[in-house]
Design a protein that fits this description.
Length: 114
């Protein structure tokens, strides 16, 4: 019985429930590399940066926010850390180039095609 309880307690942290949350009031979206984004959000009169830089992130972008309305995102995180981010923007021009740094392989800023 003690062995079963010990094994159960060891595996319990890996049994998280999936998380879903919404990010409101997005004012800018930066693409650093494909799959690596940062969202600039207005909260309580201040600007806050939320990075999503993991290799296990999936991004979907929808141009469905009416002019004058704030942009937003849905974020789903599974128990193994994979995140699906669904961005809702006005149009593709809302996605800006962001800086990147690959260490000894160089650094720079992503350029947006127009």
């Amino acid at each position: 019985m003690k062995k079963f309880l010990l094994l159960f307690l060891l595996f319990l942290p890996g049994c998280e429930t999936p998380q879903h949350y919404k990010v409101n009031n997005i004012v800018r979206v930066f693409m650093h590399d494909p799959g690596k984004y940062s969202l600039m959000v207005r909260e309580d009169g201040q600007l806050k940066s939320l990075p999503f830089h993991g290799h296990s992130n999936y991004f979907y972008v929808y141009e469905d926010v009416p002019s004058g309305e704030p942009m937003w995102a849905d974020v789903d995180k599974t128990s193994n850390g994979v995140k699906t981010i669904t961005l809702h923007v006005h149009d593709e021009k809302d996605i800006q180039g962001g800086g990147w740094d690959h260490g000894k392989f160089g650094s720079g800023q992503t350029q947006v095609f127009k």
